[in-house]
TrEMBL record:
All residue ranges annotated as the 6-phosphogluconate dehydrogenase NADP-binding domain in the record: 4-159
Domain of life: Bacteria
Residue ranges annotated for the 3-hydroxyisobutyrate dehydrogenase-like NAD-binding domain, each copy included: 162-289
Pathway in which the depicted protein is active: Amino-acid degradation
GO molecular function term, any single one: NAD binding
Gene Ontology BP terms: branched-chain amino acid catabolic process
Keyword check for Nucleotide-binding: no
Protein name: 3-hydroxyisobutyrate dehydrogenase
InterPro entries (UniProt xref): 6-PGluconate_DH-like_C_sf (IPR008927), 6PGD_dom2 (IPR013328), 6PGDH_NADP-bd (IPR006115), HIBADH (IPR011548), HIBADH-like_NADP-bd (IPR029154), HIBADH-related (IPR015815), NAD(P)-bd_dom_sf (IPR036291)
Keywords of the record: Branched-chain amino acid catabolism, NAD, Oxidoreductase
Family: Belongs to the HIBADH-related family.
Catalytic residues (UniProt): 168
Amino acid sequence: MAIIAFIGLGNMGTPLAANAVKAGHTVRGYDISAERRDAAASHGVAVSREVAEAAAGVDILVTMLNAGPSVIEVWSRAVTVMKAGGLVIDCSTIDVESSRRAHSIAHEAGMLSLDAPVSGGVEGATAGTLTFMVGGEAAAFEAGLPLLEKLGRRIVHCGEAGAGEAAKICNNMILGINMIAVSEAFLLADGLGLSHQALFDVASNASGQCYALTTHCPVPGPVPTSAANHDYRPGFAAELMAKDLRLSQECARFAGAETPLGHAASALYERFIGKDGRGVDYAGIIRFLATLKDEVPMARAGG
Ligand code: NAD
């Protein structure tokens, strides 16, 4: 069994570390927050007071952090003390450029490396049912697969360094745009006197079918498990969707890709969280979109 260090013991990092403990690995961990270190310790994680202490001599180091600069900072320190030829895996959702920079740091230190962002949220991390989207060389993928298979259900090798992040960011741009499209359709249905259930019954079996409609339906009723039935409690918080859409736009600029709907979706989610969307499920954007009708007549009238 491997010695593994998890850096970033937040909502996602702690359940991942806890599942690695359950799988029989020796698991160390570090987080800048003492509260989060204590919570992870209660799951059998041997917590350290700094990155270098947690990473010293480990076979595998996993980061689960909020932003690219933190990943680069942690990897830079960790690769100098890990076991020679060890494996570094970043499961955070970060921009592709930072991810590739982190891979080069690992490569220059003679380590194997993977970017492996996830889909499935805290529930999936806890239940071990996440999807991992993985970027990196074949040898690194082979080395990481046994651990990832213990932490998730679906492991997809998407390509070279940064390809996992690219897949995650493209996927979530689709989801953000789709949630807005589905919400707009329900608001239009309201105006046309069409019931939510009738629109759902048709679109969920026709060409409008998508995950935002059939799983995260933004109106109460048709999908009883969706956040709309629970006052839009997350679920997947609007600020995380806003972050992922922001990343999509950073990546679009970096890649020279035109994504006008991604751009519009990003702007709408920023406005939503700037108003009252923070801490609300991302499907709650329908409530924000409903408020726009007061602005539209002025715009149409050129006001
Ligand atoms: P979180 O804020 O709960 O956890 C991040 C942790 O990292 C925090 O505990 C923070 O104290 C710690 N941290 C920050 N900088 C650090 C550093 N330099 N060294 C050590 N610890 C540090 O966030 P989360 O919900 O666990 O999300 C982690 C990542 O997973 C994010 O990139 C997020 O976008 C992604 N993600 C989250 C979800 C979700 O549903 N929460 C779903 C998919 C992907």
